[in-house]
Amino acid sequence: MKPIARAAAFLAIVYATVCGCSGSQAPAEEQLLDAGDGAAVQEEQYQEEVQGDAGVEDEAPAGEDGGQGVEASDGGQAEMGDEAVDCAITFLQKPPDSMELGDVQIAVDAPWADEVVVEYKRADQVNVTVLTMSWVAGVFSANIAKSQLTFAPLQYRVVATSPDCSATAPEQGFFEVRFWGTKRITTEPGVYDYLPSVFDRLVVFSKEQASGREDDVWLFDLYTFQFRQITDLPESQGAADISGTNIVWVDGRNGTTQVPNSDIYLFDLEAGTEHRVTTDPLDQYGATIYGRYVAWRDDRNMTGPINGDIYLYDLGPDERFGT
Q: Which range marks the domain in which residue 102 is found?
């Protein structure tokens, strides 16, 4: 019998002897059993409480006494995971907003990144070219060659990635570089290109072939560096001018060698249509255009050796011929 149970039984015997309990009182042996059973229950409850407290103490926070798990800081607070990575991109070399047409060099510092690329495109395009930057001596750098560029504004951004994070500079949109300087446009040997006129990104000019073919009107796009032939007839077309999407020139298709007849023609780049502006049998030449207005010198009223006039045609507010 456990110590607590024995003590309870002894007290029960003393009590029964002193008070002389009998009759309705339970026999001393039964009281001993009852007292022993109660004491046993108390003993079991006591042991359960002690074991429960000991169990809580056994589950000490990991990191103490060589335990495994989340490492606790010096202040007693656990530090969850690794330190935060600073996903920043610092430009070490960045092209100016405006520069002479040439190679574009970019260098950035992003020590946390596994790969850094430059995404770039012409301002008038949607498709983006991706160029992987080289990593040398802790610096990511890239060179966009002049041969890949035109006078179109260049839009670019830098994207850096790693397993932990990624960053884009700038976060929205692109940086933009505009170009200026000198560029040779025509390089064809044995050909005479002359009388250029420019509007925005488009250059129109006359081309005289070396074979003796009469002049034609050509167009050059400063953004695409592409040529386009506007006229292709045996007779002469030249002295062109441009405004918006309209090109005008002097055209000799309606005359003959014996009876020349120069007229003014117009080509609508947007609609892809050609229009005859003048129909008089005498000459019209020296065409120029600005916005909705086409002007030229006109000989239709000539009565003597010198009697030229200036005429004007209004295209209308939409700057479209015949509307």
A: 90-180
